[in-house]
Predict the structure.
Amino acid sequence: MVGGNVMRSALMALMALPAAAFGDNQVNMSPGVTTIGAEIYDLHMLIMIICVVIGIGVFGVMFYSIIYHRKSRGVVPSQFHESTKVEVAWTVVPFLILIGMAVPATSTLLEVYDNDDAELDILITGHQWKWKYEYLDESGENVSFFSNLATPQEAIYNTDQKGEHYLLEVDEPLVLPVDTKVRFLITANDVIHSWWVPEIAVKRDAIPGFINETWTKITEEGIYRGQCTELCGAYHGFMPVVVHAVSREEFNAWMGAKRADEAAQVAAAAMDLSLDELMSKGEAVYNAQCLACHGAQGEGGVGNAIAGSAIALGDIGTHLDVGIKGVAGTAMQAFGRQLNDVDMAAVITYQRNAFGNNTGDVIQPSDVASHKQG
Amino acid sequence: MGDHHHGPATGIGRWLFTTNHKDIGTMYLWFSFAMFILGGTFAMIIRAELFQPGMQLVEPGFFNQMTTLHGLVMVFGAIMPSFVGLANWLIPMMIGAPDMALPRMNNWSFWILPPGFLMLASTLFMEGGAPAFGWTFYAPLSTTYAAPSVTFFIFAIHILGVSSIMGSINIIATVMNMRAPGMTYMKMPLFVWTWLITAFLLVAVMPVLAGAVTMMLMDIHFGTSFFSAAGGGDPVLFQHIFWFFGHPEVYIIILPAFGVVSQIIPAFSRKPLFGYASMVYATASIAFLSFIVWAHHMYTVGMPVAGELFFMYATMLIAVPTGVKVFNWITTMWRGALSFETPMLFCIGFLILFTIGGFTGLMLSIAPADFQYHDTYFVVAHFHYVMVAGAVFSMTAAVYYWLPKWSGRMYNETMGKVHFWISFVGFNITFFPQHFVGLAGMPRRIPDYALQFADFNMMSSIGAFIYGASQILFLYNVLATIIAGEKVTDEKVWDGAEGLEWTIPTPAPYHTFEVPPKLDAAHA
Amino acid sequence: MRLSANPTTDTVLKLATVSVAMFAFVFVVMVPLYNVLCDALGINGKTSAQAYTAVDAAVDTGRSITVQFIATNNDGMPWEFRPQVTAMAVHPGAANDTVFFAANPTTQDMVAQAIPSVSPSRAAEYFHKTECFCFNQQPLGGESNTLMPLQFIVDQDLPKDIKTITLSYTLFDVTARVSDQIAAR
């Protein structure tokens, strides 16, 4: 029973309270893997320690009063109610402490704002509900891709096990070289998003129409995970950021492979694929792009049902239009720019042949390309 | 005035047409408690969904509606009207006035509230659902991308704004013109002072909020583009306007709470408030500073570094007057003769928890550190420490403190103390772990979270259910007091209480101070 | 100043005036003031929406600045939109020309508005456009394409530490907005 489970979990949680406090749960900010992150961490600890010390003093006096100045001990209340000296002191002393805090805060802030001399520029665009990364290249051959949540719906809706990196995993991470100053240009496609990775201490809002910039220089190789931190609609909680920090050599190799892959995609777009190839590719694309709204069995949800739908069983051109241009005024986005022609052909083929939609239609990448031309 | 020496009318008409400050105060208090329960129900749904990782109870879109409505209902429906209710009851009795300066407007400003909130709540049943863009309703999520119900949300905000403005004008007019002879400004109880300053803040910034939602309305329906880059506008402009309202709003909520605490701590310390004058100046400086710190809510939007520095320094300065207040309260207790009835317990709870919230506020003011705190659960923890442990605890203290004067009956002290301890423990179980998950990287306003946040979230949810349940005890205690509490007749219900409201009979008669009181030496 | 002989009425009238004034303040002060500050401080990298007239023709050939161009489509904008060159080296004070390519693949006539944003934002006030397709809405027939011109000068006073300027254009579909305005006339 659900109720029983909740009760049992509640009891277990109550028993786990002390354990949780001392367990392996992270309770503090991470100093991260950048010099700025470490400085911010130091700043955070400094201010927190000052606050704790002041707090101990203030609460100490209060509890002394509570214990020793109680009516039940028969004390006679004193009637003093002002003292200019004391009042001036506790105005001036906190002010001086604040100046002491402002100095390191200012210097760290100025460093965060020093975007000069970056070696690599990356354009980050927030979309509802995924991130797009574009490596800017002076020659104009930019490499770009979308980074989607990779956690399956079954895990989110509790019909399957949740993996170690539940909700913090993507199909394609942002790959960055270490020891390299990377400049991020951040913008958004629709609403305001915010790009955050705690361990590299970068959080900057992505604002539609405008560019924000910030930078990082990662010192340690590793995988760093973050999330969108500005409410951006229904699936705000489901657009993680994953950064793979690798050595420069690995980065260059990755970049080379990525370029080769893009070239292969262009070549593939010119070739015809079999129904089986399209179906298996289409299933992968469907699960990454469509499933959240249209359901694992095409049964619908936020979006319309695909199983047995008039669009998926009707005219191919209309179906392509919906996929490429979206439907204005609804949550159905235009996928024409997010999916290449191969993926678009595959997913449309898949939708027309899966979930009992056995139309037998095969849509080739070249069909998509010619449809886009009109 | 022709209705001298009349008791209250009977039946529903008494409440619909009343111009009596005590009746209106009572209605405000009950209304705000109803809203507190409604907003609390939304919070329970949020915490139930967040009890475990994974989506269990609601869909992500509905979850966002819950966080949005929880914020709006608590801020505009529960906390603000509760303090207006308190002001209605107490300000005339504290300054020796027979009623509020504008009794009829007083009636209107209350009675437009229920339709306003009905409109807001009705959006839940509209196509596309209720507002789901957070209580801060950032454009363009709240304009281009909002459900059609946003129009009703905008009208609801307008209604609440008009109500607040009328209420504050009334309070200012009362304090400025209705004080008993000899009640000079610097003799007014601190609660009156903090409310006077709050009312000025309200008159200044509620129209700004009205302006912001009007611009949204125009963007949505009339083709303007204040907040859309496509037409030459800027979504960040919305945030500046919103927080120009929003930051003073935070002090609108907390200043009356300061006033309450400044009345109650001296009463149970049996010693005058320490540093009365510096309290007044500190309140005024906090109010002034609240106008020049708004952009500290926006450190991550990419302001120029000079702007970032200005707002950081100005925000840090707020720690000074706030510190003065905390030091003054503690010095008031120092060498007093303390006793710990329920109102005092809630005030001490306030003092501890509000101070913790103040410390996290200071941490948040540090711009570079805020890059790591911004929009995480650390912020959620911070503002619940100041809003709930600040405003709600002090409001609860106020109800226990003045209820005997209002009703002529004493509440059950044991039950009150139990209520305090359950609230205090439940509150801390709920919100203290949120500091940890925030620092560890959990963003706010998410319906589902990564596994490393699971333990603390479960703890938070359990705490929330405990805190929520304790409010039922509160309701029971208040009802039991009004219906069958032990009668009290002493004018001074509490031996240490000072002020004109403790010179009138208990329970407070329907009309008080129809002849202005003579201030004795203690008050003059 | 007293607005009424009755002190309460006087207070109410004054406060009502304040609240009405604050409502107006949002529209007539905050919005224009924000725009002025944006122009002056380059908030959000905004540049002037008016064509710049060069005042000082001296070219600082000793300095070379890299100007990057980025083109982004806003939600639902189906056009193809990209800079013809993605980066160019320029001397402060010199006039530079470039073009952006735009194609409307749909069958409908559409109108677009490009919104510029300069990064770093403190470079915005030193980035002068003498001609820009972003000054006007750009109509484009269905299934056709165009080259849209941009002329700019980087100011000689650009802070010395800035070596790269990024100019981003976001393209918005304003077809519906324009047709609404025509219908409203």
